What does this fold into?
Amino acid sequence: MTESSTVAIEDFSFVRTGPVYRFLARFALTPWQQVVIAVLVAYVPLAVMAVTSGIGKGPAVRVTFFHDLIAQVRLLITLPIYLLAAPSIDRSLRYVVAEFSLSEIVTDRPRYVAIIRSTEGLLDSKWADPFLLVLAFLRGRIAVTGLEYTSWIALDPTAPLTLAGWWYATVSLPIVFFVSGRWLLRFLIWTYYLASVAKLDLHLVGAHADRVGGLGFVALGTARFGYLAFAAAAGFSSKIAMRILYRGDKLPEYQWVIAGISIFLALLILSPVLFLTPPLLRMKREARRQYARLGLDYVRQFESRWLNRPLPAEGLLGSGDIQSLADFAGSFAIVEGMRAVVFTPRQLLRLLLFSGGAYVPLLLTMMSWRELLLLIYSMIK
It folds into this structure.
């Protein structure tokens, strides 16, 4: 590998790109410091304005600020997760990018480096962040229109926004929507990267123990997006909770919605690796043909040596032919058992549990904390 290609791979990042990142990088903030500042800007002013104006507590409106589960989850759960997950996801994706080269699955290094450069160009687009900022402000304004009940945001669905509601729509929500929009864009670029790599001539190994030709590391890296799935699911969960608490809906009415969203989020996270399915299937077909021919030749030689002539005086003891035959059978079984997708059923189940876990608090609308804890204990003991 040339020095330039090594630098291209080592310096690659899905997170440390874009004008906004370069601006914030001047302050050298850790993820936890970013969370503290985000909460101070997006949440604390709302709490102060809601309380001092009399709409943060008491019966003045139907939904007060501290009882607005959607706002609380967005600002205290979803936003912190989006910020804290960045280093972990970036490390995992950088590992995948480097492993394609280090494991020599990609042999055409110039084309691979070109893919990395192209991906970097998309990540570092000077237009992406401004577009996402404008979109975030628009979404923030739309999110506070058409409220179903009086709340701290607006004392009446047709009334102007309160001061706290204005800050929520023009500062707090745009921050949340901008960060989530950046993650969505990076996920789409991650999809582009895998789709581009899948078009290369990949050097896969049919008998690899991971049963996907040596591509098992890709699913391990992708699984870190589960943090974002949980954050998104928490947002859906808060909206369902509000409908249950303030509209009189029942949790069983949403069981299929919850199941559908959980399945959708899990499959969405794993969907980019499906671009690797065609090369996997091609490799499996070729590996089966090669191992079938090799196996036929090996078994013929084995039978010729051991079945068609008298056994030697020392018998079979000390011969490695029997073990070699068993080893070959094991390798052939791995080839036969190769999967068409990189991820395993266990990894899919883990993501389903991860995204579905955000809905567990909804059970509190039907039972007490004690009953919920006893239920969870009975399921895991």
